[in-house]
Design a protein that fits this description.
- The protein is of the alpha+beta class.
- It has one domain: GHMP Kinase, N-terminal domain (Ribosomal Protein S5, domain 2), CATH 3.30.230.70.
- Helix content is about 30%, strand content about 30%.
- The strands form 3 sheets. Strands 3-4-5-7-6 form a 5-stranded mixed β-sheet. Strands 8, 9, 10, 11 and 12 form a 5-stranded antiparallel β-sheet that branches. Strands 1-2 form a two-stranded antiparallel sheet.
- A hairpin with a 2-residue loop joins strand 1 and strand 2.
- The radius of gyration is 18 Å and the shape is globular.
- The structure holds uridine-5'-diphosphate (UDP).
- The site of uridine-5'-diphosphate (UDP) has 13 residues, from helix 3 and helix 4.
C-alpha cells in the first residue's frame, strides 16, 4: 500500500458487521457476465464483466509464428498480452506496455500454458490478447477467465479450464473477489488461478500476494478462492454451452 493510501485507510471503513462496503457477504463474488464468441475476426473470443471490470479476450491460432526464429519444433508458442485501455482507470493510463502489464502478461501466460496442449501444434503459435476496457481490481483474474473461455471458443485443445479469482484482507477479514476499495485500502491482495479438470480443482496455476497474512488467513483465502472459482467455472461452462447451442441452431 502506498503512503497516501496508508493515510486514507484510517478514514475508510471496509467492513460493516457481516457485510462489505458494497453490501456483499465475505464469501460473495461480484456479478459476473460472460459471453463467448463475440468477435467475428478472431478464432475465439469472450466478453466478460466481473463487477465493474469489463474485459474482452481474443484468440488467434494455432497459426504460423512470425518471426520464424520464434517457432518451437516440438510445441506451440503461446503469447499473451494483457492491455489496459487508457480510459479503463480513474487516472488516464499511458497507452502501451508498462512493467505491471508485462508482469501480468507473463504470469497469465504461464497459467494458461498449464492447460493448453501445446505439443499438438509444433512450430505454430497461439496468440491471446486481452483488453481491459474498465478496471476495478482483479482485472488480471477477469482477463484470465475471459482468455480461458476464448481459448475453448477457438477450439484449442485443453486439459482443463483456468479459472481465476482474488481474495483480499480488508479490515482484518478475508473477503472473496475484492473490488477497488478493498484492493487499495485492504491489508493484502491474493490473486489465485486454478486448473479445473473434470469439474474438480486439480492444481494452482497462479498465486500472487502483496501484503501480510497469517497462516490461518492464507488457509481461509484458499478456501474462499476455491469456492469462488467453482462458481466462476460454472458460468464459464454455461457461456461456452450457450454459444454452441446457438451455433448448432443456426446451422440447423
Ligand atoms: N489501477 C489503476 N491504474 C493502473 C493500474 C491499476 O487505476 O495503472 C487500478 C485498477 O482499478 C486495477 C486496480 O488498480 O484493477 C488493482 O490493480 P492491480 O495491479 O492489483 O491488478 P488487478 O487487481 O486489477 O489484477
Amino acid at each position: 500500500m502506498s503512503e497516501s493510501n496508508e493515510e486514507k485507510k484510517d478514514e475508510i471503513q471496509l467492513i460493516f458487521g457481516d457485510k462489505r462496503l458494497d453490501g456483499r457477504r465475505f464469501d460473495e463474488l461480484r456479478n459476473i457476465k460472460i459471453e463467448a464468441g463475440i468477435l467475428k475476426r478472431a478464432d475465439g473470443s469472450c466478453y466478460l464483466e466481473m463487477g465493474k471490470n469489463i474485459v474482452v479476450a481474443a484468440v488467434y491460432g494455432p497459426r504460423e509464428v512470425h518471426p520464424r526464429h520464434l517457432q518451437n519444433p516440438s510445441k506451440a508458442v503461446i503469447r499473451y498480452r494483457y492491455n489496459m485501455a487508457p480510459f479503463s482507470v480513474e487516472e488516464r493510463k499511458r497507452p502501451g506496455p508498462d512493467r505491471r502489464s508485462v508482469e501480468i502478461s507473463k504470469v497469465s501466460r504461464e497459467a494458461l500454458e498449464a492447460v493448453i496442449m501445446k505439443e499438438l501444434f509444433p512450430r505454430s503459435g497461439i496468440d491471446i490478447f486481452v483488453e481491459v476496457l474498465q478496471a476495478d481490481a482483479g482485472s488480471r483474474t477477469a482477463c484470465l477467465n475471459a482468455a480461458s473461455v476464448a481459448l475453448v471458443d477457438a477450439g484449442v485443445p485443453m486439459k482443463g479450464m483456468i479459472t481465476s479469482v482474488a481474495v483480499a484482507k480488508a479490515d482484518g477479514v478475508m473477503v472473496l473477489d475484492p473490488m477497488k476499495e478493498e484492493d487499495n485500502y485492504g491489508e493484502a491482495d491474493i490473486p489465485f488461478a486454478f486448473l479445473i479438470r473434470g469439474g474438480k480443482i486439480e492444481s494452482i496455476a497462479l498465486l500472487q500476494m502483496d501484503g501480510r497474512v497469517t497462516k490461518d488467513e492464507l488457509r481461509e483465502a484458499f478456501k474462499l478462492a476455491k469456492k469462488g472459482a467453482m462458481e466462476i467455472y460454472k458460468l464459464q461452462k454455461e457461456a461456452i454451452m450457450k454459444k454452441y447451442i446457438s451455433e448448432s441452431v443456426e446451422n440447423g
